[in-house]
Amino acid sequence: MQNELSIGAKIGQFTIYLLIIGVTLIAFPSNDLTVMMVRCVQALELVILGILILPKIQQVIKFDKFNLMVIGWWICYVVNTFLHPSDVGITPVFTLMNVMIFLLLGTKYWTQDMRSSLKGLIYIFSTLVYINAVLLILYPEGLWEDPNWVDRGNPTRYLFGNQNQTGFVCFLAIATQCIYTFAYKKGYFNLILLTITSLVSVLFLGSMTSAIGIFLMTAYMLCNRLFKYPKGWLIAFAVIYTLTFTFIVWYGNDIEQIKWATAFVEDTLSKDTTFSKRTVIWANAVDWIKESPLVGYGIQNAEWNDDHLEGSGAHNLLVMLLLNGGFVFCLFFLYIVIYAVREALTVHSKATTAAVMSLCVLLVMAFFETYSIIYFFLYLQIIYYSASIPKQIEECEQTVLTSNE
């Protein structure tokens, strides 16, 4: 096939993804050895970034609008952090490096061969999910305990951290495999096995947010024909999501007066009507957001969150963005999301619809949890480039027909 990546390019791309995803998703105990390991990886990432960006500089940095917006958002986001009192050190700089590497891999490889790029990500995410399942069987009580987390929540740590982070990785694996399977009609067995393994894992760990996310993904995959024209569904989702955020998170209305909602939360989710104290965290966060509504307080660590919010994190994507970057960065982020979705929907295919609908599931999960924002942008990148899949498939088929003549 004319547009297929070379073996060297596939191996190089896979190795870089494996390196970054392994270091950023796997939870390591904090000691001198792991600190040294992370610093070595970060130094290697700097070299990789230089190798990837050099050709772009020579081409007068030809990025499209999506990539320019993401780069601009992240640079300003990091600068905003350094303009505020913060104890996160230079961690945001390395986060920016990871995002830059993901974007450069996208512009270098995804536009040419999305299939190989998705397969590489699937191999990594799937392997991590299966390794985690084996470790849960061998070490059901957890791999280690975080001494800094005592008295602030459950200190038990698994391969990816706590149970909610485990669910996030499981979601990434299922969603990426779903897009690939719907696009190329391959990988059905792994998709089924991933879904079952992920669901059992998160139920064992007790993450109901993750379990609901996987149930929603499963429901979509089984009933995907109902979403053949997703724009109406997306508008309805946006309206419901906005209203829920406004009345429950921003204005702090509880759900005790709504009987069916109370029954669902207490009986089905086995949680109290504060969503395990999340409404308290949101109320505290909103008070702080009102003090600095435009640009927030920059990226902060768990100690700052514990002191100001009475929790280790915001437990809501939009609240986190408003705290860290105010309405300026939150609205810019939402514009990037809308731009990526609109680009995907310019092409009518099951793959692009799967990518967009999976994002809705991820946003539902992120309504109650805090996840790595690096992978939100990676997933937005997948959505954006999913629009190129049908064209690449058509070009490959045309190449095959031409070669057979």
Show the helix and strand layout.
Blueprint lengths: L6 H19 L6 H27 L6 H18 L8 H20 L3 H25 L5 E2 L10 E2 L5 H22 L3 H18 L2 H15 L8 H20 L8 H10 L9 H14 L10 H8 L7 H29 L4 H16 L7 H14 L2 H16 L1
Antiparallel strand pairs: 1-2
What would your notes on this structure say?
The chain is mainly α and 405 residues long. Helix content is 72%, strand content 1%. It has a two-stranded antiparallel sheet. α11 crosses α13. It is globular, with a radius of gyration of 21 Å.
Observed structural traits:
single chain, 405 residues, mainly alpha, two-stranded antiparallel sheet, 16 helices, 1% strand, globular
Intertermini distance: 15 Å
Question: Sheet with the most strands?
Answer: 2 strands, antiparallel
The percent range for helix content is: over 70%
Query: Which structural category do the helix and sheet elements fall into?
Result: mainly alpha
- Low-confidence parts lasting 5 or more residues at pLDDT below 50? none
Strand order of the largest sheet: 1-2
SSE sequence, one letter per element: HHHHHEEHHHHHHHHHHH
Note the total helix count: 16
How many β-strand runs? 2
Tertiary shape: globular
* Average pLDDT: 89
**What percent strand?**
under 5%
Radius of gyration: 21 Å
